[in-house]
Specification:
The structure holds two protein chains of two kinds.
Chain A: E1 4-6, E2 11-14, E3 19-25, E4 30-38, E5 45-50, E6 54-58, E7 61-66, E8 71-76, E9 85-93, E10 99-101, E11 105-110
Parallel strand pairs in A: 2-11
Antiparallel strand pairs in A: 1-3, 3-8, 4-5, 4-9, 6-7, 7-8, 9-10, 9-11
Chain B: E1 4-6, E2 10-13, E3 19-21, E4 23-25, E5 31-38, E6 42-49, E7 56-57, E8 64-70, E9 73-78, E10 87-94, E11 101-102, E12 106-110
Parallel strand pairs in B: 2-12
Antiparallel strand pairs in B: 1-4, 3-9, 5-6, 5-10, 6-7, 8-9, 10-11, 10-12
The chains are: A mainly beta, B mainly beta.
Chain lengths: ~110, ~110
């Protein structure tokens, strides 16, 4: 059973701090990794993807991938109250076309 | 930007009714997916399709069927709606190696 694990939270950080969201996956055949943001009552929105080991930065967001440890993370710098949402980690395995989702981490950024 | 359109934002149906949820994407994506999302259970894959007239069962296909007669349209059918099918239904599309683009979701209530 291919699994993607996330801490459900809630993760609470003060405004301006760095929020660190973590995700582990079970299948070493995983090739692509995605982070989605989902506001309450809304559908998930893709915010980052990463394919190679290392860091990938986009504005205030940095995705980090360590395939040896089967670990992917999302850092949000200078967190804002508008970042308060549930963040879903998703993994694509080479042999499958569908993504495998974690259950999400709820982030709360306090003003 | 890819747009994925779900025909209804909110639906209320009676137990035993046949329910059709429609999804249309406008970017010629090969892959289309239907998920349901429930609190604490995350996103669960119902059915997916890699091509016209092709369908594959996901993790929870019981009580559902799908139709893909045209590449841009993927329909989810609840053959005889039951109260345990009350949920948020999310359609998504993707290219083979890419992440998903989700529709805005349909919140279905079965009474």
């Amino acid at each position: 059973q291919k699994e993607v694990e996330q801490n459900s939270g809630p993760l609470s950080v003060p405004e301006g701090a760095i929020a660190s969201l973590n995700c582990t996956y079970s299948d070493r055949g995983s090739q692509s990794f995605f982070w989605y943001r989902q506001y309450s009552g809304k559908s998930p929105e893709l915010i980052m993807f990463i394919y190679s080991n290392g860091d990938k930065e986009d504005g205030r967001f940095t995705a980090q991938l360590n395939k040896a440890s089967q670990y992917v993370s999302l850092l949000i710098r200078d967190s804002q109250p508008s970042d308060s949402a549930t963040y879903l980690c998703a993994v694509k395995v080479l042999s499958q076309g569908n993504l495998i989702f974690g259950k999400g981490t709820k982030l709360s950024v306090k003003p | 930007d890819v747009k994925v359109t779900q025909s209804s934002r909110y639906l209320v149906k009676r137990t035993g009714e046949k329910v059709f949820l429609e999804c249309v994407q406008d970017m010629d994506h090969e892959n289309m997916f239907w998920y349901r999302q429930d609190p604490g259970l995350g996103l669960r894959l119902i059915y997916f399709s890699y091509d016209v007239k092709m369908k594959e069962k996901g993790d929870i296909p019981e009580g559902y069927s799908v139709s893909r007669e045209k590449k841009e349209r993927f329909s989810l059918i609840l053959e005889s709606a039951s109260t345990n099918q009350t949920s948020m239904y999310l359609c998504a599309s993707s290219l083979y190696r890419g992440g998903y683009t989700f529709g805005s979701g349909t919140r279905l209530t079965v009474v």
